[in-house]
Amino acid sequence: ASPYLFQCSLSLPPDTDEDDAMQIERGLSEAARAYGGALVGGDTGEAKDGVIAVTGIGVHVSGTFIPRKNRLTSGDLVAITGSFGYVALGLAAMMGKTKLNGPIVSKSIQAFKHPVARLKSGLALVGLGAKVSMDSSDGLALTLHELASLNSVDVEINKIPTDESLIAFFKDNGIDPLPFVFYGGEEYELVAIFPERVSGEALRELGFTVIGRVKKPGSGKITYDGRELKGEGYEHFKSEDP
Prior knowledge:
Elements: E1 2-12, H1 18-34, E2 38-46, E3 51-59, E4 77-81, H2 86-94, H3 103-113, H4 119-123, H5 125-128, E5 132-135, H6 140-150, E6 154-157, H7 164-172, H8 178-182, E7 190-194, H9 200-205, E8 208-215, E9 222-224, E10 227-229
């Protein structure tokens, strides 16, 4: 759907500085305008902890829905938007879990603080012939496993879904990039599967990068370079108790 209107319910502690509250309002309005919508109101309240809840209303064009389950065939292309790994590195840096620094870490922190909705790519899915699609907010590995399991296929990844500068950064620091790339979460990128006939150039023009192919039949297994990637990530409402 194309964004149209946004409403926000904003609850803040009583000692919140007025300038901080106004910055939140300006940020919400700027974000709404950036995606072609408008912040039209909502509600404000007092709370012990700050809570920002946003509802978006969009315009949906009939016939443009992309399901999570469909008929997939061997050779179908697995593609993603964006570069994975930056957000996980940025969060680790902000939480003090890594002592790494430099331009790549600064870029990663910005990636965590300012996620980008891939609106243009999402609206292009139908025109490109996408068979299935999901967002990757809970982690790329978990998203791939869910799509593969729902459709009874395996997926073979042949390209680490990030850019060369981040791979080089991890390599220079002796770090395995796969946990950051596949198990980070909070990227809000798109993961989609397209027919093999769709050209890589057409996908690239609309923000997609092919990272693998479908193997059928299968049981939801995801592999990269001979390594099986576990279907792990953030799972809502899952108890951590044994």
